[in-house]
UniProtKB/TrEMBL annotation, chain A:
This is NitT/TauT family transport system permease protein. One of its GO terms (cellular component) is plasma membrane. Residues 76-253 form the ABC transmembrane type-1 domain. The keyword Membrane applies.
TrEMBL record, chain B:
Residues 4-235 form the ABC transporter domain. GO terms for molecular function: ATP binding; ATP hydrolysis activity. PROSITE patterns: ABC_TRANSPORTER_1 (PS00211), ABC_TRANSPORTER_2 (PS50893). Keywords: ATP-binding, Nucleotide-binding, Transport. The keyword Disulfide bond does not apply. The lineage of its organism: Bacteria, Bacillati, Bacillota, Clostridia, Eubacteriales. Pfam families: ABC_tran. This is NitT/TauT family transport system ATP-binding protein.
Length: 268, 255
């Protein structure tokens, strides 16, 4: 029922909406450009000390050096890989545990205080134990990322499961549905939006876990570059890594947002 | 012939604070092919009664027989229609309708064809690939009815099926739902608190007391209109007599 013969007034309205959207994007880009430009210039004219805050041109030079050594994408890949595995595992395992807790009210009630304690505990504190158990390496880093996102996922997905409309479940029961059918036909699909928002939160949390893990044990990855750069007073290395980290975190978040769109077509 | 027999049914609810008697020694028969409404003050235990008939709740005492078979768990002979349509937003109209069949693993070529025919007959075939949010409230309720009819139940339980609709839509939809039920030749048991709706649709109206629900009276609705439909029924001269009688029977005091 789309009407393409808009009135003049409507066309003006559409134009105004579009103009505003463009303006927002332009200002967003401008802020970035101005920020880097003033950084470059203030460092060049020694208003700020480039030894302490680095400088965009020096960062680019350093990036070129890393690239020619073939290490740039290696470091990025290691961190992204650990993060993706961490948050996917966190989401999948968390959802599975949430299903068990939904299935058995008894287990859910029994485990409730333990979940609360685990949720309140800063999971980073478990880092040294995990490293002690599985050794210095990727496995430890992934496990740290996993533990950080796991409990939050369990709690938020379980809340999503429990918020499913009782009447929708009643409807399925009148058809004679079993518990696994209720899970499959209504509880799981109607919780997909909750699960995707858990995924979104987990992207950020997993990055925290991975970077901390790399601080502790890694020999490669962006977290390693940051901590190493700090130790050898190479702020170019630190700043560059942080900027690459921001970009990759943003891209990963956008990927999840794309996934969300794909799974919720029925909403549009 | 009695299709559904409710025999000395009592139902007690337990909570930590108290036990509540929702239904008290209620007996009622629904005849084959009739449309029977149960009306009572709000919170009198009408919905509890339907849940027991649907096999979702076990009665404290008494029993429910459908075609002389005792109902103890949900079965495909009973179709249940809730107050809101509860179409699943993530399924399109067609797969919303096949939901019951999928759950009962009865998705045969035959049953799918039957659904196609019903969609055609009730003016929904153009919408089968639409999603629920693209349909109006009245259409959604029609889809919900067809979803219930798709499992081919012997008796339909309607739990205030029009209560969530605005007044005009309610009149239009109850007209359609009534016609569909009659065309499909189904027995129907409706719970409502709307007196005129009960009279307009029903062959008989059972009035329940305040909680715990007991049967107070049953009215045979005989209206002097030809080719009765809910809208035409409302024009019948006897309509307001029944209305007044039931209103008095309900014994609701306005403070």
């Amino acid at each position: 029922m789309l009407n393409n013969n808009f009135s003049k007034e409507h066309e003006l309205y559409l134009k105004a909406v579009k103009r505003r959207k463009t303006a927002v994007i332009i200002v967003q880009i401008l802020i970035l450009i101005i920020f880097f430009l003033q950084w470059e210039l203030t460092a060049r004219y020694k208003i700020v000390d480039p030894f302490l805050v680095s400088q965009p041109s020096r960062m680019i030079k350093f990036m070129g050096k890393l690239y020619s050594e073939g290490m740039l994408f290696r470091h990025i890949w290691v961190t992204c890989y650990e993060t993706i595995i961490g948050f996917l595992l966190g989401t999948i395992v968390g959802t599975l545990i949430a299903i068990i807790l939904w299935w058995s009210d008894f287990i859910c009630k029994v485990l409730d205080p333990y979940l609360v304690v685990l949720n309140a505990l800063p999971k980073i504190a478990l880092g040294p134990i995990l490293i002690f158990w599985v050794g210095n390496g990727k496995t430890a880093i992934i496990l740290i990322a996993l533990t950080i996102s796991l409990i939050v996922t369990i709690i938020s997905v379980l809340t999503g499961f429990k918020e499913v409309d009782e009447d929708k479940i009643k409807l399925l029961k009148t058809f004679g549905a079993s518990k696994s059918q209720i899970l499959r036909y209504v509880v799981f699909p109607s919780s997909i939006p909750t699960m995707i928002s858990a995924l979104k939160i987990n992207v950020g949390l997993s990055y925290v876990g991975v970077i901390v893990g790399e601080f502790l044990v890694a020999k490669e990855g962006l977290g390693f570059l940051i901590v190493f750069g700090g130790q050898v007073a190479q702020l170019d290395m630190v700043m560059l890594s942080i900027i690459i980290l921001s970009i990759s975190a943003y891209l990963m978040y956008e990927a999840v947002a794309l996934l969300e769109k794909k799974f919720t077509v029925w909403r549009s | 012939m009695a299709k559904l027999i409710i025999e000395n049914l009592s139902m007690i609810y337990h909570t930590i604070e108290a036990e509540t008697k929702a239904v008290d020694n209620l007996s009622l028969e629904v005849l084959d092919g009739e449309f029977l409404s149960i009306i009572g003050p709000s919170g009198c235990g009408k919905s509890t009664l339907l849940s027991v008939i649907a096999g979702l709740l076990q009665p404290s005492s008494g029993r429910v027989l459908l075609d002389d078979m005792e109902i103890t768990k949900p079965c495909s002979k009973v179709g249940y229609m809730l107050q809101r349509d509860h179409l699943f937003e993530w399924r399109n109209i067609f797969s919303n309708i096949t939901l019951g069949l999928e759950i009962q693993r009865k998705c045969s070529k035959e049953s799918l064809l039957k659904i196609e025919r019903m969609l055609e007959k009730y003016g929904l075939s153009g919408f089968k690939n639409y999603y629920p949010h693209q349909l109006s409230g009245g259409m959604r309720q029609r889809v919900a009815l067809i979803r219930t009819l798709a499992i081919d139940p012997d008796i339909l339980l309607l739990d205030e099926p029009f209560a969530a609709l605005d007044y005009q839509t309610k009149l239009a939809v109850s007209e359609e739902v009534y016609k569909i039920i009659k065309q499909e030749g189904k027995t129907a048991l409706m719970v409502t608190h709307d007196i005129s709706e009960a009279i307009a649709l029903s062959d008989r109206v059972a009035v329940l007391s305040k909680r715990p629900a007991k049967l107070k009276n049953i009215y045979d609705i005989k209206l002097s209109v030809e080719n009765r439909t809910p809208l035409k029924s409302r024009e019948a001269p006897e309509f307001r007599h029944y209305f007044n009688a039931i209103w008095k029977e309900l014994d609701i005091h306005v403070e």
